[in-house]
Amino acid sequence: MICVVDASVALSWSLPDEGNETTFALLKDLESESAVAPAVWPLELANALLVAERRKRVTFAQANKALTMLLNLPIDICLPPRDMEIRQIISLARTYRLSTYDAAYLELALRLSLPLATLDNHLQQAAKQAGVEAIF
After folding, report:
1. Whole-prediction pTM value?
2. How far apart are CA 63 and CA 5, in angstroms?
3. Which among 12, 25, 65, 86 could disulfide-bond with 19, CB atoms 3.0 to 4.6 Å apart, if both were Cys?
4. C-alpha 47: how far from its chain's center?
5. 35 pairs with which residues across the strands?
């Protein structure tokens, strides 16, 4: 496992003008390695692509193609969090003023001792404060 990857990074691989050299380098790394994401990841991808479609940023066909590509990447989806993990997620959300969705990425990175790949500035700051390497 190379990192925990959040939806912002994954979406940068398929939405126009979202990606950059660094995010595409991570995508290239996934040709030979794998990453991990919390259970909320596929739902966030689907919702963001649906919103992009509604806003006419992508067509239905482009959104479907992007979702298929993203879901076929070697990114392991963790099981939904158990009681103890949910409590830790809520604690992290409170401490760092995150949504529970974003805190799920941070909790996973902490639990697995992996860097966190995110384009979300607030989540990057929270990761650094929590002692997690933030990629990007």
Report:
1. 0.94
2. 20
3. 12
4. 13
5. 75
